[in-house]
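Sample entry was shown:

___
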Amino acid sequence: MAFKKDDIIIIEPKEMFVGKKDAPVTLMEFGEYESEDCAKANEIVKQLLEEYEGKIRFNFRHFPLTMIHQRSLKASESAVAAGQEGKFWEMHNVLFSNRRNLGTTSLKLHSKEAGVNNKKFLDDLVNGVYGWQVQDDLKEGINRGVKELPAFFINDEPFTGKPTFANLSAAIESALKKVKKKAPAKQRA
């Protein structure tokens, strides 16, 4: 008998955004929670969300590099689990703050800090309940050509260059200009 992963409706990472729902620019990052570079990028993203409030929305996609960081997969699953209670972003930030301490038992403690109330949280992690969602993100990242982390996309276009505040801001400004140019054409249609 085949297993069905659709028995329970699971909110996928690709559906979890922070920022204004109809923002003209979508910033997407493929990353993982044990990476120092991704942790630095997370701080930059927080600044960008403040700076461009109402103009951008952010989506974090999981790309655990398990050959380097063995705990990154379960950390990603724990973020998806927290997202089922609307606590994805709280867990996301707690995981980056505790990136050197991501064992399964620690993830349970981190979930409490993020405000997750699921009594089956640890069981779900141990049983890999949210593993499919992380694998789906990983496959999408591979299909998009992600090779190094963090990898950013702005309105589905790959961002090249070092993900600094200045570089990402310039790319966001450019995307905002493109959106403004397209807007009048849509109104005439």
Summary: The first helix runs from residue 36 to 51. The domain at 13-182 is CATH 3.40.30.10 (Glutaredoxin). The mean pLDDT is 91.
